[in-house]
Structures are given as C-alpha cells and as structure tokens.
C-alpha cells in the first residue's frame, strides 16, 4: 500500500486508479466488509450500494476539503461524521423514493454508510489535507474500487445462487442453483476466493519485479 500524502499532491491518473487496484478498499485494505458481505446477494443490490457509497464519499470529501482550513482540529472527527450523515440522509430518502423494494432489500445498511471506514478514512487521511480537485478524483477512484468489489461478489453470488444476472436468466432450466451462495455463508466463500485471487496477482507482480531487478543487476 502506498503511503498517504502529507502534502498537497498534483492530480494524476494514479490519483484515480489508486482506489481501483493498489488501495482497493475491499480487496486490499479490507474496509467496509459489513455491507460487502450483507447486500451482495444480487447484482442490483451491489450496484445500488456501490453508487450510494460513491455519492456519499465524493460529496463528503468535497465538503471536507473545502472546509479543511475552517474546521477546528479538536472537533474534526465529529464534524466529518455530521457531514457524512447529511449526505447519507439524502441518499436514504432518494433510494426510498426511487424504489421501495430496493430500499427494503438494502435495509439498515444504507444508514450504516455513516460508519463506513472507507468514507471516514478518506475524509481524515486525504480530503482534510488535499485540494478539492484531488479529493474529488481520489474519492471517485475509491468509490469505483468499492463498487467494483461489490459487483465482483454480487455477480458471482447471484449467478451461482440463482442462475441469473440482474434478473435475466443465464443458465438453462437444468441448472441447479447453489442456494448457499445467496445465503450469508456464500458471501464469505466468494470474498475469500476473490481475496486469494488478488493476493496471487499481487505476489506474481512482486516476483516479476524482483526478477527484472535481478536481471538488470
């Protein structure tokens, strides 16, 4: 994991891509696992939770960055939580207005976005130290990484647990669904498999880097 910047940094492609791979909040940093395991029994739930979290992450990071020189250090955490809770309330009402079924499916995990370590961590470690542009780009990258992680779990669990993706039948009528995949244990099984894959890819990249350095020396 790359070190968090102690000074204002320039906006680069890495500012966005960092959250997708190098600092992926789920597969690398292991943050926000509660909603990852709880709501990813379908692809639609994963998309909705990912977009909701990304909105709150971007909006709160923007406001924290704008107010970073105004917020007293003694009450900064409480202020960040109030900011995050404000945008979570907006998301909560919007989802409830758009689809009551989706709102019921996500349950209390919409309100629990307030306690998501990904959002509070970005506010404290990044947005409070960076300009608005860099904070927004970084938040978009982290939100995209979180959404991709949710989709990785939600798609696999729905496909194996119901034979569908977004409600569309993928397998034939002869397919016997793996019901365990849409149950809570299925979330742990699929998450474990994705973590193994990410760790394998990380180690392979490190081995290639070491081999290339050895060849040069």
TrEMBL record:
<dbReference type="GO" id="GO:0012505">
    <property type="term" value="C:endomembrane system"/>
</dbReference>
<comment type="function">
    <text>Part of a membrane-bound complex that couples electron transfer with translocation of ions across the membrane.</text>
</comment>
<keyword id="KW-1278">Translocase</keyword>
<dbReference type="GO" id="GO:0005886">
    <property type="term" value="C:plasma membrane"/>
</dbReference>
<feature type="transmembrane region" description="Helical">
    <location>
        <begin position="102"/>
        <end position="120"/>
    </location>
</feature>
<feature type="transmembrane region" description="Helical">
    <location>
        <begin position="177"/>
        <end position="198"/>
    </location>
</feature>
<dbReference type="GO" id="GO:0022900">
    <property type="term" value="P:electron transport chain"/>
</dbReference>
<feature type="transmembrane region" description="Helical">
    <location>
        <begin position="20"/>
        <end position="40"/>
    </location>
</feature>
<feature type="transmembrane region" description="Helical">
    <location>
        <begin position="132"/>
        <end position="157"/>
    </location>
</feature>
<keyword id="KW-0249">Electron transport</keyword>
<keyword id="KW-0812">Transmembrane</keyword>
<dbReference type="InterPro" id="IPR010968">
    <property type="entry name" value="RnfE"/>
</dbReference>
<comment type="similarity">
    <text>Belongs to the NqrDE/RnfAE family.</text>
</comment>
<feature type="transmembrane region" description="Helical">
    <location>
        <begin position="46"/>
        <end position="66"/>
    </location>
</feature>
<keyword id="KW-0997">Cell inner membrane</keyword>
<keyword id="KW-0472">Membrane</keyword>
<feature type="transmembrane region" description="Helical">
    <location>
        <begin position="78"/>
        <end position="96"/>
    </location>
</feature>
<keyword id="KW-0813">Transport</keyword>
<comment type="subunit">
    <text>The complex is composed of six subunits: RnfA, RnfB, RnfC, RnfD, RnfE and RnfG.</text>
</comment>
<keyword id="KW-1003">Cell membrane</keyword>
<protein>
    <recommendedName>
        <fullName>Ion-translocating oxidoreductase complex subunit E</fullName>
        <ecNumber>7.-.-.-</ecNumber>
    </recommendedName>
</protein>
<keyword id="KW-1133">Transmembrane helix</keyword>
<dbReference type="InterPro" id="IPR003667">
    <property type="entry name" value="NqrDE/RnfAE"/>
</dbReference>
<dbReference type="Pfam" id="PF02508">
    <property type="entry name" value="Rnf-Nqr"/>
</dbReference>
């Amino acid at each position: 994991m790359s070190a968090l910047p102690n000074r204002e940094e320039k906006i680069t492609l890495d500012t966005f891509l960092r959250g997708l791979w190098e600092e992926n909040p789920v597969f690398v940093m292991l943050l926000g696992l509660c909603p990852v395991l709880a709501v990813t029994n379908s692809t639609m739930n994963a998309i909705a939770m990912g977009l909701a979290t990304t909105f709150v992450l971007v909006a709160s990071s923007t406001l924290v960055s704008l107010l970073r020189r105004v917020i007293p250090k003694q009450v900064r955490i409480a202020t960040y939580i109030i900011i995050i809770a404000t945008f979570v309330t907006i998301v909560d009402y919007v989802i409830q207005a758009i689809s009551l079924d989706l709102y019921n499916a996500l349950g209390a995990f919409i309100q629990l976005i307030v306690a998501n370590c990904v959002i509070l961590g970005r506010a404290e470690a990044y947005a409070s130290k960076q300009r608005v542009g860099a904070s927004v780009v970084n938040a978009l990258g982290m939100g995209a990484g979180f959404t991709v992680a949710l989709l990785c779990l939600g798609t696999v669990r729905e496909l194996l647990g119901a034979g569908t993706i977004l409600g569309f039948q993928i397998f034939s009528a002869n397919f016997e669904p793996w019901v365990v995949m849409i149950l809570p244990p299925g979330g742990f099984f699929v998450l474990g498999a994705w973590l193994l894959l990410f760790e394998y890819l990380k180690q392979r990249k490190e081995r290639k880097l070491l081999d290339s350095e050895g060849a040069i020396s």
